[in-house]
Design goal:
The chain is α/β, with parallel strands linked by helices and about 270 residues long. It is built from 13 helices and 9 strands.
Length: about 270
């Protein structure tokens, strides 16, 4: 597995996400995008295919947008709670009706509660000790419980084409996964019941190619997310979206889409 060494203290402790990073997660552009109905459509579709109800824990929930969308799409089906080290985004999550537990996931006991599902949506790449988080996840899951993981794909078309110029190779990401390394990391606690790759953003490839490796600020990241969310919502772009969906499906078939996705079942 590719990983950062040394790891800056503010990223290892999570302090960055409670201070500097909170401004990004609570920026108007980021919140508008995260709370748009279309934002988590892939994750929700995947989630619903494997789970129709039960207790859900979202680790690294940030502003709570995934759990909010889950409750809006499937009211009454799930008992959901999010956890994070970042205080201000959790305040926002609570303001939207999302239940939260504050602090380091590794130190939480959740009052002895166990869950049917634990999710890590774009979280493991930010962690200094991802294996410990997976072990903890297994400990709070019920027998045969499920775990959903999404991380950037280091064998994606974007990563292959751009190399070090790719914007997702940056200090906040402490780990970089391939299908093989992710599978090996989860095998102690989980069985893989589904593996795929998903998401494709040609705008990122174009911008990073032209930028030549120039650092992309959090403000620029939020603005791009806002722009691409607007594109997805626009009825005028339906023909383009059809072509985009075809391209994403083809890349997914070749395991070249931007993100790795695994659905895991807790081992007995």
């Amino acid at each position: 597995m590719i990983y950062a060494n040394p790891v800056p203290g503010e990223f290892a402790s999570g302090e960055y996400y409670d201070r500097t990073g909170a401004d990004y997660y609570l920026s108007p552009a980021k919140l508008e995008s995260d709370y748009a109905a279309i934002r988590f459509e892939r994750e929700l579709r995947l989630f619903r295919e494997h789970c129709q109800g039960g207790a859900v824990l979202d680790v690294g929930c940030s502003s709570g947008a995934f759990l909010y969308q889950l409750s809006q799409r499937f009211p009454g089906c799930f008992q959901a709670v999010g956890t994070d080290v970042s205080g201000p985004p959790l305040d926002y999550a609570e303001s939207r009706g999302v239940a939260v537990v504050r602090g380091n996931f590794l130190e939480q006991d959740f009052g002895g509660r166990q869950f049917d599902v634990v999710t890590f949506w774009a979280v493991l790449e930010h962690l200094a000790a991802p294996q410990q988080f997976l072990k903890k996840a297994a400990s709070v899951l019920k027998p045969d419980g499920l775990c959903f993981v999404v991380v950037p794909n280091m064998r994606s078309l974007a990563a292959r084409a751009l190399g070090a110029r790719y914007r997702y190779i940056y200090p906040q990401h402490l780990n970089y996964f391939t299908k093989a390394t992710l599978t090996k990391m989860v095998e102690a606690q989980f069985s893989v019941i589904r593996h795929s790759t998903t998401h494709f953003n040609p705008i990122v490839i174009w911008q990073d190619w032209r930028g030549g490796g120039k650092e992309v600020s959090n403000r620029e990241r939020a603005q791009l997310l806002q722009r691409t969310t607007a594109y997805k919502r626009s009825p005028l772009l339906r023909p383009v979206k059809a072509l985009y969906a075809l391209a994403e499906k083809m890349l997914g078939t070749l395991n070249l889409a931007d993100n790795l996705v695994v659905v895991l079942r807790k081992k007995a």
